[in-house]
Amino acid sequence: KPKTPKMADLPSSRLQLYKPPFYSTGVDCCGPFAVKVGRRQEKRWGDLYKCMTTRGVDLALLEQLDTDAFLLSL
Q1: What is the count of structural domains for the chain?
Q2: 34 exposed, middle or buried (CB, 10 Å; 0-12, 13-18, 19+)?
Q3: Residues 6+ apart with CB under 8 A from 54
Q4: Greatest extent of the chain over all pairs of C-alpha atoms, in Å
Q5: Residue 61, in any domain of the structure
Q6: 17-56 confidence digits (pLDDT tens)
Q7: For residue 9, is it within any domain?
C-alpha cells in the first residue's frame, strides 16, 4: 500500500491573517552570474526576497557581495 509522507506543520509566519505583503520574509542569495558590461565580463549576485504569507517573490541584483550592497537592495 502506498503511504502518504508525513508533512511538517506550517511555520507560524505563514499563518498570519490580515498582514500586509512582505510583513514576514525569507531571504536567499544566489550567484555569481557572469554579466557583460560593454566588452568586459563582471560578476553579479542576486537576492531573492520571499513573502511568507502571499508567497510573492522579489529579485534584486547586487554588484558586489558585501553588507553595503545587501542593505541597499532592501
Answers
A1: 1
A2: exposed
A3: 21
A4: 60
A5: yes
A6: 888 888 889 999 999 999 999 999 999 999 999 998 888 9
A7: no
What domain range is 31 assigned to? 21-72
Place of cell 502518504: 4
Amino acid at 61: L
Residues 6+ apart with CB under 8 A from 34: 41, 42, 43
Domain-embedded: residue 7 = no
Q: Which three cell numbers stand for residue 11?
A: 511555520
Question: Does residue 69 contact residue 46 with C-beta atoms inside 8 Å?
Answer: no
Task: Specify if 4 maps to a domain.
Answer: no
User: Residues near 60 by Cβ (< 8 Å), separated by ≥ 6?
Assistant: 46, 47, 49, 73
pTM (predicted TM-score)? 0.73
